[in-house]
C-alpha cells in the first residue's frame, strides 16, 4: 500500500486526506501544533465562539461550498446592517454611511469555522500526528521526513504549509533549486499581516435599527469590525481586524485599547464584558517564519510554478497560496487540496 505523508493539518492538508479517504493509499498527516486547523481557529470562551482565523466566504467560493454541502455543515448569511461607522480620527470625524446593498452574500458557519475542520478531519479517516515539527526532508529512493521526535517514510509527500515556511524552516536533501526556493520566499502568506480579534458582551449594546456593528477606521486600533452575534447561542459578540501598528503591544494592552475605543462610541451604555481574544498571526511561528519578508498582499499567490510537482511526481505543494482558484482564501485551500488528491489518484490507476 503506497504511503502518502501530508505536512499540515489545516484546511488544504485535510482536503487532500479527505479526497484520498476511499483510496488504497496509507495516509498520515504531521501537524506542528497541538491542534487542527492551521489558519482556522475558533476559541470557545464563556459560551462564546471567538474567531481568530478565517471566517467568511461567498457564493463564488465553489470548491469550499461543495465540500460544506458534502459534509452537511450549516452556514448562514453575515448581516452587516444598513449603516457603517467610519472613524477618521485623528485626521477627521466619526461619520455614518449607508452600506450599499450587496450584490453577493457573505457567509459564515453556524457553529464556528473550526466545525468545518473537525468534521473534515473525522471524515478524512487519516492518522494525524500532533506536535511534529518537520526539520528536514530527504528524497532518494524513499522519502524520509525527520522531526524532533521521529523519522517518517513515504512514497509521496504533500506540503500543505505556507511556502515561506517551507523555504525558511525545512532543510531539503537534495536541495530545491535556487529559483524555486526564491519563489517560495517571495510568496505572501495569507493571514500573516493580520491581527484578528473578537469580543463578547452580556448584551449587544451597539445594535440599533440601522447600525449593528460594522466599523471601518484607517487610524484607530480597530480597522474593521462586524457583528458576530448568535441568537441561538445567546451570543453577543463583535469580530474583526486590528491595526498592525499595534502588533508590538501585548494582547492585554490591545484589549484595553479596544474596550476604550468602544467606550468612546457608546459612553452612556453599560458594557459587561464576557470574553476577549486576539491573535497576531505575524507571531505564529507555524504560519509565518520569524525572518519572513514583508510582501505585498497575495504576492505570487496562485503562481503556476507553485503547482509543479517535483522529484518525479513525488513532492507536491498544496497550501492555499498555491491554488489556481481563489489563492489565499479558504476556497483556494480546498480547491488545491482536492486537486492534489485527484492527481495522486490518477497516478495510482
UniProtKB/TrEMBL annotation:
Domain spans labelled Amine oxidase: 11-81, 109-342
SUPFAM superfamilies of this UniProt entry? Answer: FAD-linked reductases, C-terminal domain, FAD/NAD(P)-binding domain
Source domain of life is Bacteria
Q: What's this protein's name? A: Flavin containing amine oxidase/oxidoreductase
GO MF terms, alphabetically ordered: oxidoreductase activity
One of the Pfam families matching this protein, by short name: Amino_oxidase
Q: What is the similarity comment for this entry?
A: Belongs to the flavin monoamine oxidase family.
* InterPro entries according to UniProt: Amino_oxidase (IPR002937), FAD/NAD-bd_sf (IPR036188), Flavin_MAO (IPR050703)
